[in-house]
Amino acid sequence: MSENITESFIDQARKLNDQRLSAAREIAAAVQARVDAEHALAQAQAAERKAFKDAERKGWTKTELDKLRPTKRTRRTPKTDTAPTPPAGTAPTPGQ
What we know:
Order of helices and strands: HH
Helix content: 55-70%
Largest sheet: none
Shape: flat
Strand content: under 5%
């Protein structure tokens, strides 16, 4: 009878461990994808810099190229309540 309890315990532990290992594999794959994307971005940025330098050597001015260069995208933060908070110890104004 004790073998059944032991085997059951080991099987449950193995299932939990398999789930954890599966999660670890998913994390590793996501990290690898990010690292690959960062590497690809670095290569693309280097190629872009080289292309702009080559264009300058072929007669383009930096000002002309800057006008053609795509603008950098900015990250937008979610809007939060922008109402000013009254200083501590003061009563809020009516309507707040």
